[in-house]
Write a sequence for this structure.
């Protein structure tokens, strides 16, 4: 399960990164478009607000999606560490019991 999750996140990461880069470029295009076509007009301000809000909402969604993937990965790793800790504790107890048994015999 851990390997599948890591693999999925690694497969999704380039696409998510590209989407963020595309949004960055789109924000610059929006700014250039508004500056070149509507400089000084009230309509430009409203259009810029709407386009910027839309772009920022998209970026927010993508960041949230990536953060959720990272949290799932960290949760999975925490579970694996807990499993390993339990295994080590069990081995330690077994070793102590074997030592006691050997000492008594």
């Amino acid at each position: 399960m851990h390997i599948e999750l890591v693999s999925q996140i690694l497969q999704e990461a380039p696409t998510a990164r590209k989407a963020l880069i595309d949004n960055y470029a789109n924000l610059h295009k929006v700014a250039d478009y508004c500056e070149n076509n509507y400089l000084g007009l009230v309509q430009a301000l409203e259009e810029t607000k709407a386009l910027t809000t839309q772009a920022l909402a998209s970026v927010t969604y993508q960041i949230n999606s990536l953060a959720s993937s990272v949290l799932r990965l960290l949760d999975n790793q925490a579970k694996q560490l807990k499993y390993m800790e339990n295994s080590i504790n069990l081995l330690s107890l077994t070793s102590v019991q074997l030592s006691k048994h050997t000492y008594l015999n």
